[in-house]
Amino acid sequence: MIGRSTLGAARRRLGRLRSDIVSAVSPGGAVDTDLAPGHPLRASLHALKSYNALRSAEAGKSIRDGNRVLNFHIALDHVAKLPAGDYAELGTYRGLTASILWARRAAGTTLYCFDTFEGFDERDLADGRLSQDMEKAAFRDTSLDLVRQRISGGSDEGLAFRVGFFPDTFAGLEDKRFRLVHIDMDLADPITAALETFWPRMVEGGIILVHDYRSKRYPMAAEAVDRFFAARGLFAWPLNDRLGTAMIMRQRGMAD
C-alpha cells in the first residue's frame, strides 16, 4: 500500500517537473510577464520563478502566479518607507507567502502569522455554499515547524506565531499598529473579523491585501471585502494575480 506521504512527494515532484517545462518554453527573459529594461521590479523575476516552482510542487500541477509576487513586492517596497508599523498574515498555511513578507519586511519589525495550522475551524464553516467535507479536509497538511523552517530557516527573529482561532489569537496585540496585512482566510466570517481588527490599526499609507477576491470556490471573500468597505464609503482595488487580490491603502480621513 502506498502511503499518503509517498503520494504527496510524488505529486510535488511532478509539479516541479511541470513548472520547469513551462518555464523552459516561456519567452526569453520573461516568466509570466515581461518587464522593460530599467523597470525596478526586474530584480523580482527570480523570486517570481522560485515562487511558481514551489507553488507548482505543492499543488502537484503547474501553477503560474507570478503577478502575485510582483504585487507583494510593490506593496512591500511601499510600506517599507513608512515610519512605523508591523506586518501580519492571516491564513499562513505552509508559509509560502509569509516567507516573501518576512524576507522583505522593514528592519526592526515583526511579522505576525495567524493560523490554526490545522485547517478551517468548525466555527467558520456555516456557509451553505461550502462543501463541508472538502473544507474540513483542506489546509491541514502543515505544521508550525514546517512553516518556521520555510519562512526563516528556523529562526524566530522578527517572526511571531499566533496559533488558534482568530480573533481570539489577537489578544495582547491591541496596541500594535500595522503597515501591511495579508488576509488569506477564504471565508466571510474570518475575513470580516480580520478587517474589523486590523483596519483601525493600519498606519497612514499602510496596505491591506485580501486574497481570493476573484475566486469561484470562495466568492464569500469578495462579498466580505466589498461589504466591509462599502459600509465605510470605500472601495478596494482588484489586483490581477491568479485568484485575485483586493488591495486598499489606509489614508488620512478614512473611517474606521
Protein described:
The protein is an alpha/beta fold. Helix content is 37%, strand content 15%. It has 8 helices and 7 strands. It has helices at 4-24, 45-59, 66-79, 96-103, 132-137, 144-152, 188-198, 220-230; strands at 86-90, 111-115, 159-163, 178-183, 202-211, 237-239, 245-249. The protein has a 7-stranded mixed beta sheet with strand order 3-2-1-4-5-7-6, sandwiched between helices. Helix 2 packs across helix 3 and helix 4 (96-103) runs parallel beside helix 6. The radius of gyration is 18 Å and the shape is globular. The chain starts with a helix and ends in a 7-residue tail after the last strand. Residues 22-31 have low confidence and may be disordered.
What's the rounded overall pLDDT mean?
90
Strand content: 15-25%
Q: Outline the biggest β-sheet.
A: 7 strands, mixed
Report the strand count.
7
What shape does the CA trace take?
Answer: globular
Put simply, the count of helices is 8
Pick out the low-confidence regions: 22-31
Through-space gap between termini: 56 Å
Structural class of the helices, strands and pairings?
alpha/beta
Q: Level of helix content?
A: 25-40%
Radius of gyration over C-alpha positions, nearest whole angstrom: 18 Å
Strand order of the largest sheet: 3-2-1-4-5-7-6
Question: What string, H for helix and E for strand, traces the elements in order?
Answer: HHHEHEHHEEHEHEE
